[in-house]
Design goal:
Elements (H helix, E strand, L loop, with lengths): L19 E14 L2 E8 L2 E7 L6 H4 L7 E10 L14 E12 L16 H6 L1 H4 L3 H23 L3 E2 L17 E3 L7 E3 L5 H9 L4 E10 L10 E11 L3 H19 L11 E3 H8 L13 E2 L1 H4 L5 H6 L6 E7 L5 H13 L6 E5 L5 E2 L1 H6 L1 H11 L6 E7 L1 H18 L10 E5 L4 E4 L4 E4 L10 H7 L9 E6 L2 E8 L4 H10 L4 H7 L1 H7 L6 E7 H8 L30 H6 L11
Helix pairs in contact: 4-6, 5-17, 14-15, 16-17
């Protein structure tokens, strides 16, 4: 017999009854039923119930067992007594009568429990992550993550893609966040950067004639903590294709992502034919460039009903042609208590409030706005929004460029409060036609709004003749249930168009050549039209595992202060290390 096990803890069935077997694993829990000891023995594959009574030669040793001890158990498989079987366990029809044991690894007192799924402080969970990972739900999430990666790989290869690995030590690149820098010992005073994404390399692969690339790529960004991204590093399904239009990318990737979701949705409906929603429409209807389409609330502009009305606050705003009034319908929200609660919520978000109209029995509008604009305008708003008695509408006004994100938050809040969100489905959509540029108020300049390597719609002609803020890009995202899970674009592969695009954002040709020399040179020697995307693996796994915390689907994450509590990173370098790297540490003054 094998030194440690003849079977795993998830393998034994009724067909194994009367066999002498050997298992090794962790003591999940010990139960004493009137002098008979039941040991649930656990390994990666499952749990097997083991039994010792006072007649067992190992009974005295089993009494010493404590949670999470690693033990070897020898014994005979027998059927569980009638009425004690457990149909929820694959091994639930049998048990092992213990004949011999060996303690392979005793455990100290546990800093957090492994049995059960009770909440526990995050700092303890991360410091003792190896224990946390033994817990059933988290352990299963990690295995699901691996299965999702397998599904992605299989589907990508079925679509004719080839897997490549791009460098980790590379040059700094303006991907929208700070780089992690790595000092060079061989080249004093110079630094490598960890890749924020393999963007340039994957485009260079297209220059090299490889046609269809993918990679499960690690990406590194020295960003401040964000709720929807792990500090420091994350993984993405990175994709690039040659000789493609935007439609070709959609046709290749839509079945991959749909198929992955269907594989792991546990029966929940998944969108088959994805809608394509222009950025401007997404902002206008949903107040988000990553709309949650499970929420059926659609916002509408109602400016005409307030123009020249008795509600002077909105009427004066509308004298400026750039200003608008948007309505957010609230089906079933037509009570004063609910409307006041929404108003208070808006004030908590830093807004002056949230105007509203309620429609009561008889269909008359109520509330300060209704009183100011009169019954005809109130009735017209109700008709436009398709509302009825017992419903309400909430209003935001001003420059949409400044209020659309708040309007989206209000839509989400209403959807949650009024149960307008079907949470048992996955709604996927392409968001298209992103603006190429945006105005950076802080630096008072035009800057890229998304990926700087995207092809502008209209090409070089648009870059030279249009107002930059009106240019749309061949840039697209995938939205799912309120999250951006992928982003991509058709690339700007013409050197003169690339230089002009960066010039508009304030980069001179010399700077473009210096910062993107490899790609700029490659474009001079026969660059194919190409495009691709990157899908966030962590967010996809998070959605499919039914959690809203990325730490629940990652092996060894950092905390929100970007610290690895398990390994003690970041840590101070030794004087010898710093000397070899020709680095002196200049710490900020304390206090």
């Amino acid at each position: 017999m094998h030194r440690y096990r003849s079977h795993t803890c998830g393998a034994l069935r009724e067909s194994d009854i009367d066999q002498t077997v050997r298992l090794s694993g962790w003591v999940h829990r010990v139960r004493d039923h009137g002098g008979v000891l039941f040991v649930d023995l656990r390994d990666h594959y499952g749990i097997t119930q083991c039994v010792a009574d006072p007649d067992s030669p190992a009974f005295a040793e089993v009494e010493k067992f404590r949670s999470e001890w690693v033990v070897r158990i020898d014994g005979k498989v027998r059927r569980r007594p009638a009425g004690t079987d457990n149909p929820e366990l694959p091994t639930g029809m049998v048990e092992i009568y213990i004949k011999e044991i060996e303690v392979l690894g005793p455990a100290a007192e546990l800093p957090l429990p492994v049995f059960g799924e009770q909440e526990y402080p995050e700092d303890i969970r991360l410091k003792y992550r190896f224990l946390d990972l033994r817990r059933e739900k988290l352990h299963q999430n990690i295995m699901t993550r691996g299965a999702i990666v397998d599904s992605m790989r299989r589907r990508m290869k079925e679509q004719g893609f080839f897997e490549f690995q791009t460098p980790i030590l590379t040059a700094s690149s303006p991907e929208g966040a700070r780089d992690f820098l790595v000092p060079s010992r061989i080249h004093p005073g110079k630094f490598y950067a960890l890749p924020q994404a393999p963007q340039q390399y994957k485009q260079l692969l297209m220059m090299s004639g490889f046609d269809r690339y993918f990679q499960i790529a690690p990406c590194f960004r020295d960003e401040d903590p964000r709720a929807d991204r792990l500090p420091g590093e994350f993984y993405q399904l990175d994709v690039e294709m040659s000789f493609v239009t935007q439609d070709d990318v959609f046709a290749a990737m839509e079945p991959v992502i749909t198929g992955v979701f269907e594989d792991f949705a546990k029966g929940k409906p998944v969108t088959r034919n994805w809608p394509r929603i222009p950025f401007a429409e997404a902002v206008r209807k949903y107040g988000s460039d990553k709309p949650d389409l499970r929420n059926k609330i659609i916002m509408q502009e109602v400016s005409e009903h307030f123009r020249g009305s008795g509600f002077k606050v909105f009427a004066r705003m509308l004298e400026d042609p750039k200003n608008q009034v948007w309505a957010i319908p609230g089906t079933g929200g037509g009570s004063r208590a609910f409307c006041d609660r929404m108003n208070s919520w808006a004030q908590g978000e830093g807004q002056p409030g949230l105007g509203y109209i309620m429609w009561r029995e008889g269909g008359e509008g109520a509330g300060p706005l209704a009183n100011n604009i009169g019954p005809e305008r109130t009735a017209a708003i109700r008709e436009q929004l398709g509302l009825k008695e017992g419903d309400a509408a909430f209003f935001v006004a001003g420059d949409p460029e400044k209020f659309w994100k708040f309007a989206g938050l209000a839509r989400t809040k209403l959807g949650e409060e009024l149960n307008q969100i079907d949470k048992d489905r996955f709604e996927l959509a392409w968001i298209v036609d992103f603006p190429m540029y945006e105005y950076d108020e802080e630096n008072k300049k035009v800057d890229f709004s998304h990926n700087p390597f995207s092809m502008p719609q209209g090409g070089l002609d648009a870059l030279t003749t249009q107002d930059p803020l009106t240019i749309k890009a061949f840039q697209y995202d995938i939205a799912c249930n309120g999250y951006e899970i992928a982003s991509g674009g058709i690339r700007n592969h013409k050197p003169e168009a690339m230089v002009k695009a960066f010039e508009i954002a304030g980069y001179g040709e010399q700077e473009v050549v210096e910062r993107f020399g490899g790609m700029y040179r490659a474009f001079q020697y026969g660059a194919p039209p190409h495009g691709g995307m990157a899908a966030g693996l962590d967010r996809i796994v998070m959605l499919l595992c039914g959690t809203n915390n990325l730490r629940e689907i990652s092996l060894f994450p950092m905390n929100q202060q970007a610290m690895d509590l398990l390994m003690g990173a970041p840590s101070e370098a030794t004087a010898k290390q710093l000397k070899e790297l020709h680095i002196k540490v200049n710490l900020p003054a304390k206090g």
